[in-house]
Amino acid sequence: xxxxxxxxxxxxxxxxxxxxxxxxxxxxxxxxxxxxxxxxxxxxxxxxxxxxxxxxxxxxxxxxxxxxxxxxxxxxxxxxxxxxxxxxxxxxxxxxxxxxxxxxxxxxxxxxxxxxxxxxxxxxxxxxxxxxxxxxxxxxxxxxxxxxxxxxxxxxxxxxxxxxxxxxxxxxxxxxxxxxxxxxxxxxxxxxxxxxxxxxxxxxxxxxxxxxxxxxxxxxxxxxxxxxxxxxxxxxxxxxxxxxxxxxxxxxxxxxxxxxxxxxxxxxxxxxxxxxxxxxxxxxxxxxxxxxxxxxxxxxxxxxxxxxxxxxxxxxxxxxxxxxxxxxxxxxxxxxxxxxxxxxxxxxxxxxxxxxxxxxxxxxxxxxxxxxxxxxxxxxxxxxxxxxxxxxxxxxxxxxxxxxxxxxxxxxxxxxxxxxxxxxxxxxxxxxxxxxxxxxxxxxxxxxxxxxxxxxxxxxxxxxxxxxxxxxxxxxxxxxxxxxxxxxxxxxxxxxxxxxxxxxxxxxxxxxxxxx
Length: 516
Known about the structure:
By secondary structure, this protein is mainly beta. Among the domains are: 82-119 and 132-200; 368-516, Neuraminidase, CATH 2.120.10.30. The protein is built from 2 helices and 35 strands. The protein has helices at 8-19, 99-102, and strands at 90-94, 109-115, 133-139, 146-153, 160-162, 168-173, 182-187, 192-197, 203-204, 207-208, 212-213, 219-225, 230-236, 243-244, 252-257, 263-268, 296-301, 307-309, 320-321, 326-332, 342-348, 353-357, 368-373, 379-384, 390-395, 400-404, 414-418, 424-429, 439-442, 447-450, 459-463, 469-475, 484-490, 497-498, 506-513. The strands form 9 sheets. A 5-stranded antiparallel sheet has the order 1-8-7-6-5, with no helix packed on it. The radius of gyration is 24 Å and the shape is globular. The protein starts with 7 loop residues before the first helix and ends with a strand. Residues 1-77 have low confidence and may be disordered.
């Protein structure tokens, strides 16, 4: 087997650590980075929703803006700043990554977690004691070969975040004792893991902070609480440095990479509240002003640091990229529970135009849920919450292509996925509610696989990036244990194969890794 040369700086660090009998002290909350980045991020222009972004074909560059030291804050008696996050590089560990993974994934693999596996079970109907461990696996949809990647504590759950290429993972460890709690990075090319953030939770100021890998798996974007606000940080795959790329007094939330890595979309309340830092001019008074529930949508061009505002209205959920130039987001009013509504909007970042995806002659206050956009952004499938969660396929002009009224999913209890070529849509359940079997339709809502004949049932479907396979979570009620398993089928939903039937643990589907 070909062995990789381990970086000399990591080997020296491991030797030093081994020679020290006393564990390194916990870093102070205001740790100062040791790197000196060289590129300065330009200030945010006051762009409107019709701003035009000039496109280039320049490849994504590593963003290394200059870090501005945080000003010394003299808090008023009524406003006490939260401790600034302290970055670390400790709890090192080596993993034996299979060479088929470490050397680069040639064909897309299914990624999943198996919790509390017990391979020696003889009676499937007999409960087994918990092992308190879970394992991350990659599996081939063709051969079924299973590659064990890493084992972790079961409390990590589904808080495992994989790069699209499969060369890196971020995962959160919740140590009951507390010593090892934090966010970790695993470099799968080196088989090296380390803790980078000793945070106690991925929930930051009430917002869930889901780590986001760049398309090439080289940089991790994450939002973190600072003294009074939220900022977005970038961390390289080796975890050796970090940089605050927003450095603003507002709440900067939910970073999302464009598929080509050129842009980073995020949500910010900076147009509503210039700053939450008491010493800043025009700052919001946190003693009388409630914290935000969202903000406007912005994009940052990573090669220049230029920030452009995209939306006119306020987004209350993370934005989602449809492709390299189209970005979608939803608008809701989370404070108005008696009159719910949810609107879908789509932005073209090349032209700066934003339009609402709205049914012609539709309800005045739409409730459009569980949406899935076609790869070219011309159509969207969603649940119409004003009509008993009717499944609707609509084009961008608001014309209804067709509807499905004989499949009843709870609101937001549906999960749909388009095939990469836009020819098929898989429709399943979500959040463990999987009432139907394999349901696959085409771009006119004509049925290919009708979903009326489980087992298995189908939840959380997702197509492989090479357009060859459909993966999903399914339950076969005819099994004695009624276990949930991971299945793969053709893009039409035929020939489903169970990838995890010989395992004896609870499974969680993470998706696909490896580019086509």
